Structure formats: structure tokens, C-alpha cells
Amino acid sequence: MTVEAEPMPIPEPPPAAPLPPAAAPGTPDEESGVPLPASADLLPGAPPAPRSVLHDVPERALRSLLLTMSRQRWLGRVATGTPITRGMVARFVAGQSLDEVLPAVASVIAAGMHTTVDVLGESVTSAEDADGAVGRYLQTLDALAERYLERNVSLKLSQMGLGLDRELCRENVERVFRRAAEIGAFVRIDMEDASTVDATLATWRGLRPVNASSGVVIQAALRRSARDVEDLIAERGPVRLCKGAYKEAPDVAFTDRADIDQSYAELMDRLLHDGAHTALATHDERLIGRAVKMAKADGIARDRFEFQMLYGIRRDLQERLAAAGYTVRIYVPYGTSWYPYFMRRLAERPANVTFLLRSLFSEGAGSGSGGKD
Length: 373
Ligand SMILES: Cc1cc2nc3c(=O)[nH]c(=O)nc-3n(C[C@H](O)[C@H](O)[C@H](O)COP(=O)(O)OP(=O)(O)OC[C@H]3O[C@@H](n4cnc5c(N)ncnc54)[C@H](O)[C@@H]3O)c2cc1C
Hints:
Elements: H1 59-70, H2 73-80, H3 86-92, H4 98-110, E1 114-119, H5 127-146, E2 152-155, H6 166-183, E3 186-189, H7 197-207, E4 214-219, H8 225-234, E5 239-242, H9 257-274, E6 278-281, H10 285-298, E7 305-310, H11 315-323, E8 328-334, H12 339-348, H13 351-361
Parallel strand pairs: 1-2, 1-8, 2-3, 3-4, 4-5, 5-6, 6-7, 7-8
Helix pairs in contact: 1-12, 5-6, 8-9, 9-10
Flavin-adenine dinucleotide binds at residues 40, 190-191, 217, 219, 242-246, 281-284, 308-310, 313-314, 331, 345, 348-349, 352, 373.
């Protein structure tokens, strides 16, 4: 008979102060002392935000539709076979092959930033595909080490076979963790939809002894995350905090943007004060400004946290933070299985759909990167 231990009572984190409204355009963030505009409108010479051709479609419905489409395999097959989408995809995806991604990694590093490489792929449907993904991660780790590039990768458990067999997935991740440990690489396990959180945290906990240089991701959108953060603080787990990119039901996740932002602010406050090393993954200038201010005011050393952003999104902000002396790590994805990742990027900012449509209907389909991001 197994006797379950009484769970340790976890204190509720104190509520954080409400997130302040974005500063009025043109008002520099004086308190932080960092040359960070509090509003994208402050960027010198930035073109006005493009009006979406889909402006009359409620944004929430469009986001939901795009996220549903991101899970349709047949659409993925069509999209990946269409050369016309490549220009837009190249904005978010650093290449289709290892040969293409390595120069992209080198140029991010040359610009004074750090990297984590993601070999695109998720929700594999066979053990062979999962094995292929492991092989690509091992190759990537070796190539990074051979070229003296930063040894840091991010992977998804559904790519390692989580949906097929949990033990197979654990073994696959262990292979990556072992090679990473041999060459001194950091491995972050990305967080996927809410149904995978328990398995993801358990897999990481089980494999942490194999490579202590590893961490997980917490999504501010999930209602359970305050408890997960307290657990991770207690076990000194390195956390990447993001808002959450998946379509979730309201009983497990906040669905209102303001609630997600408020949750992010609260979790960020807890992690910055009491957590192990924290990666703040966001392009949200209000949250970044809040972190900068809090770190200054409360004496949180800069080596206890870093900012993380996605390849191709808000390069201006990435560079400005790096120039101000903050550690900025860019998530650099590559590979041919870019479809779900790309669709989530469209869903995050439906105006991107406008750019995609423009690139589809114009001869300049290769540019596709309008705006400041
Ligand atoms: C390094 C990193 C790792 C991540 N890992 C995970 C993970 O493991 N699991 C997970 O669920 N999610 C992950 N995400 C995605 C995250 O959950 C959000 O979906 C995404 O970052 C958008 O949220 P935001 O915090 O930037 O804020 P938002 O409020 O969505 O955006 C703030 C501003 O950023 C810009 N922006 C944001 N997204 C885009 C875009 N797609 N295109 C153009 N501009 C944009 C816009 O200017 C926008 O106004 C990760 C994000 C980053 C940066």
C-alpha cells in the first residue's frame, strides 16, 4: 500500500500591486533610468501601427481561429509546401537547416545578445519521428560546441514523444540532457498546452540530476501557475516566465489579456525576489519596465535574471535592453516543421495576418516584415 505524504502547505503569494497603465506616448520611463520607451509609439521614426485589414473581425475570435488552425496537420502540410509563405516565415524562423541557423545564432551573439536554439517540431506521431528529433538536437548541440557558439537549447516534450508514451519521451529527453551535460549546455523544456504541465514538470524533476543546467517554463495564463511558481522557488528551479501561447479553457486559464498581464506581474515579482535564476520571456514593455524598476529598487542583481525574446520580434527592444547592460537571450527556432510555431506568432498579433496577406498578394512576398518588430 502506498501512503501519500500530507502535502506541504504552500503559502499564498501576496498580491502584487496592479500593473500600471502604459506611460503616455512620449513620456520616457524616468524612474528606471534605462533608455526604454514605455510605449512603442516613442520609437523614433517608427511607422504608425498598421491598421489590420481584418480590423472588423474581433481580435479574440481571430486569435482563437489561428490557434485552432495551428493544430490542423493538413493545413501545416499545405502551408509548408507553399513557397509563397516563406518570406513571412523567415521573419520568425531563422532557417530550415542547421547550416542556415548557425550564422543566425552567430549574428545574435555578435550583436551582444545570447541565444537558445529550438529545433522546430511538436506532437510527433511515431517513435521514429521522436527519435529523429532527438538526433537533430544532438547534432545541434555538437554543432554549437564545435563552432564555439552558445550551448543552450529549448525543446518540447510533444516532440520527444510525450503524446505516444511518457517513458519513451523521458528516455528521449534524457539522451538530450546527457549530451548537453557532457558539453556543458543548458536545456530548457518549453511548456506546451495545459494538459502537459504535470508531465513536463515531472519529467524535468526526474531528469534534473542528469543535467542540473536545465529549467522549465511557467505560463502566466494558467490559473495553477502561482502554486507551481511557489514549488519551483522552493526547489530552486530555473524558470522562464511567459504569458502562454496556447488556446486554453477558461476553467484552467485566464483568457482576458489584462488578467494574464496581472498574473505575469505577480509571478514575476515572486520569482525576481525569491526564485532561482529567472528568464522573463516577454516583449511587453510595461512588464519589462516593471522588472527593471523592481530590480533597481529592491537591489536584485542583474545576474539573477535575464530577458528573453523571440527571433524576429521587437529587435529594437532587444538591442536597447542589451545596450543598457541587461542580459537578453533570443529564442532562435529553425527547421522545416515551422507551421504550428508560425501560427502561434500570427495569433499573438493578428496584425501579422495583414502582413501575411499583403505578402501573399504582392510581388514582394519575400520582405514581409513591415512595422518595427
Ligand atoms: C523566449 C520566449 C520563449 C517562449 N516560450 C514559450 C513556452 O515555452 N510556452 C508558451 O506557451 N509560450 C512561450 N512563449 C510565447 C509567449 O507565451 C507569448 O505567447 C509571446 O511571447 C507573446 O506574449 P508577450 O509577452 O510578448 O506579450 P504580448 O502582450 O502578446 O505582446 C507585447 C508586444 O510584443 C509584440 N509582439 C508580441 N508577439 C508578437 C508577434 N507574434 N509578432 C509581432 N509582435 C509581437 C507586440 O509589439 C506586442 O504589442 C515564449 C516567448 C518568448 C519570448
